[in-house]
Amino acid sequence: MQAIPPLKAQAGTRGNLPDKLARLARSPFGQHYSSKSAGSYRKKGLSESSTLPQRHSAVGISNFGIPIRKLWLIGAALVLISLAVATTTYAAEVIVDDGDAGYADTGWSSATDQGYPLDPGMDVRFTADGDGSQIATWTPAIPATGPYAVYVSWTTHSNRATNAPYTINHAGGPSGFTVNQELLADQATAGGSGQWSDWYLAGTFTFNAGSSHTIVLNNNADEYVIADAVRLVSVSSDVSGRKFEDLDGNGVMNGSETGLEGWTIVAAESFQSFSVDSNDTVGMTSNVLANGEVYLVRVGGTYDAGDTITADAKYSVRPPNIYWTDSVQNYTSYGPELLDLQVDGVSPDWGPYNTGHVYWLNVLGAGAGLTFKVNDIGYPNVGSLTVDIYHAIAQTLTDVDGLYAMTGIPSANFIVAEIPQTGWLQTAPGGGFYAVSAAGAYANFDFGNQKTPSISGMKFDDTNGNGIKDPNDPGLPDWRIRMRDMTTNLVTTRDTDANGAYAFENLPPGQYRLTERQEDGWVETLPVSPNRYDVTLAQGQQETNKDFGNFKLFEIHGIKYEDVDGSGAFDALEPLLENWEITLTTPTTTLTAFTDSNGAYSFTGLGPGLYTLTETLQAGWGQSEPSEGSWDIEGQSGAVFEGANFGNYRFASIRGRKYRDDNFNGVRNAGDPYLGGWTIELTSLRDGTKQTAVTKANNPNKGSYAFTNLRPGSYLVREMLQRGWMPVNPAMTYHRVTVISDQALEDVNFGNNTIRNYAIWRISNPSSFVSPLTIQGNQAVVPQFEEAAPQEGDAAVPPNPPSIDVPHLTPPTPPELPKVPKEPPVNGREIARKVLESIKRWLPNNF
C-alpha cells in the first residue's frame, strides 16, 4: 500500500480522557464517535502530544452563519453556552467513509492509519493533482426525503490541495464548492474560529429518500487531494409567531391590539422566479405545478403602459391624478381588468393596493403550468413584472389569540408567509415574508394586518315602508349598488348577494358616493333627502350599515255589489253595480276609480302609507259593507289587497195600520175604525237598534204608520199596548218580518180592542168565546228572499273573490241580539181569562 507523504504536525492530542467525555468530544452530534476507555488517545498523523485543557467545538449553523453552541471541556466538567436564538435540530445522520460500501473511486490510493475523524486504524484515499479524471464518489442511503446538512473530512498537510473540488448532487441539482485541505476543517469554514474540528460543513441541501444522490470529489486541483468521509445530518426548522390586527398600521403589535384567529401561515420553498414582459402578447408560462399542492405567487414591480399611465399587477395611475385605481383612468369602458397581470387569462384578486406594489396569490396546483400575461388593448408597453412562485411545505392556522407554530419543517431554506384574505392590508413584516436560510428554531415571526377601507351595507325589502330595517324585513338579492369615487369620478358597482348584502373593499382613502339602481315597480325608502350616502374614508376605516330600503308598489282590488239581504257580505247571486265612484285618500293624495261592468275596481302602483277607501253614495241607497263606512289600509310591500268590497242596498220600508177589531176576528172589517196616536216600535234583529212611529190621528191616513229608509234584514214590529186594551192581532203584540233591498212591505197591521168591549162581546157571543184566542198566531205574510238557480241568458256573475288575511279589512261581528222585544209580550188569551173571572162576580149565577 502506497505511503502518503508525511502529515503536517499539529499539537493537540488528548490523553487519559474519560470515556463519556471522549465520546462527546469526538462526536458533537451524538451519533457516531471514537473512544478509548483509558490511557492515551492520539489524533491521527500527530507525533507530539499534550495534555488538557483542550477546546473542542460542535458546530451548527444559524441563519447568521455563526456557530450555535460550543462545548467547553475543562477537566471533567462540561459547560453548555448558548450563542444565538436559532438552534438546529438533528433528527438522523448518514456517514459514508472511504472504506464503506457507499464509496467508490477511480485511480486513487490508500494511506493507512489516516482515517480521522473516524476510528483509529482506518485509512484515507488520496490522489495527485490532475485533470479531474480521478473521481471519488460517495453515495449515501437517504432514509427520508428532506433537508440535510452535508459535512466532509480530510487530513491536513502543507502538500494538500488548496482547491479540492467537491460537487453535491442533491434534489435541486448539482452544487459545487472547493476546500483548502491544508487547513483544519474549522479553519476552512468561512468565519471559522481556527480551532481544531472534525468536520467541514458544506451547506444544507434537500435529498430524496433512497440512493439517487451523490457527493463527488475529483483531482482537478493544485496538489494532493484527500478523500476521507462524508456525513449527512437531517435537519429541520421550527417557526412561531403571532398574527395580529394592526389597528394603527404601524407594523408593531401594541397593547390594545389583539390576535387574529383562523389565518393560514405557510412555510414555502422557492419554486421558480421569472419576469413577465409587459409587452409580451403571448405570456410567460411557469413550470408545472404539482396536482393538489399549494403554491404562493408573489408579484412585484411596475411598468410604463403608455399615455402617461404607470401600472402594477392590478392598479394604475394617470397624471394629474395621484391615486392608484383598479379601473384605468380615461379607459374605464374597458373594465377594471385592463392592464391587470392575468393568470391563465383571468384577472385574480391581487388584493388591496400598496405602495410597495407587491401582491400575493395562493393557488392550488393542477398538474400544469400557469401563464402570466399583462391584459392590454394595445401594445407596446415598457418594463416588466417579477413573479416568484413558492411551494408550500408546511402550513398551520392561528389560534384564538393569533398564535401559531410550525415544528419540524423539512427545510433550511424557505420563507414564512401568510395566505392573504380579502379586505386586509399587510403591515408586517415589511417585505411581506420572513426568509430562513439555515435550519433552526425561529420565534417572533409576527404578521400584522390592517383592515382596508371599506363600505358595506344591505339592500332590503322595507315591507311596511317605514324607512327602517326591521327584524323581519328580508334582504333583496341581485340589486346593483353604485359607488362613485368623488376624486377620480370612477364608478364601481356591486350586486347584492343572496342575503341582500354588498361590500366595496380594498378602497384607498378618499370620498365616495353610494347610490342604487332603481328597479321598476319599487320606490326607495332609505336613504331619503338625499337618496344617497356620501362617505369619507380614512386608512383602516370601515363604514358599515349603508343600507338601502325599497318598497314594492302594492295594489287594492274590490267589487261593488247590491247587498240584497243586507248581510254585509257578498253572496254569489247578488248583482254587481257598475259606474260607482270609489275614492282612495292619503294625507297628501286623492285617487278615484269607477266600478266596471262587473262591479270591479282597482288601485295600483301604490307606495307606502296609510290609505282610506270610501265610496260615493247614490240617492236612495245605503251602505252595508264596510260596516264602519270605509276601509283603512296600511300599505305592505308588494301586497295585493283583495276583498276591499263595498256592499249597498236600496232602502226598504215597512207600513201598516192600527185599527179596533170590533168583532175580535183578527181581520179588519169594513166597519172597524182606525186608531191614531198609538206607538209602533221597530227593532232590528241585526244590531238591536230601535225606532218608533205613531199612528196618524187624522183621515185619510188615520191609524197608519211607516218605517222607511230601512236596511234589508229581519225586524220585530211591535205595538206599545195602551192601558185597558188587549191585543187581538197579533196575539203576542208583535210581528217578525224580513225585508230585502228595495222592498216596500205593507199591511203589517195591529188589531186591538178594549178589555171592557171584549167582556161585553163575550156576554153577547158566548159561543164565539174562542175566536179572539185563536188568532194570536196570525202574522202578516211577507216575501222571503230565496236564491234561485241562474237561468239561461242571465249575465255571468263573478264568484266571490278571495281575500287576503288583512285584519283591518274585516268588519266587526254584530252583537248578539234578542229575538223578541225586551218587554214581556201581552197574551190575548191570558187577558181574556182574567177579565172573565173578574166579571163573573157580578153576573147572574145562571148566566
TrEMBL record:
Pfam families with a match to the protein in the record: Golvesin_C, SdrD_B
Main localization category: secreted
Biased composition (Pro residues): 798-818
GO cellular component terms listed in the entry, alphabetical order: extracellular region
Region Disordered, residue ranges: 30-49, 790-828
Residue stretches making up the Golvesin/Xly CBD-like domain: 94-233
Occurrences of domain SD-repeat containing protein B (ranges): 459-526, 561-630, 658-726
Statement: the UniProt record of this protein carries the keyword Transferase: no
Key words of the record: Secreted, Signal
Hydrolase keyword on record: no
Compartments, record wording: Secreted
Matching PANTHER family: CARBOXYPEPTIDASE REGULATORY REGION-CONTAINING
Full protein name: SD-repeat containing protein B domain-containing protein
Organism: Candidatus Uhrbacteria bacterium RIFCSPLOWO2_01_FULL_55_36
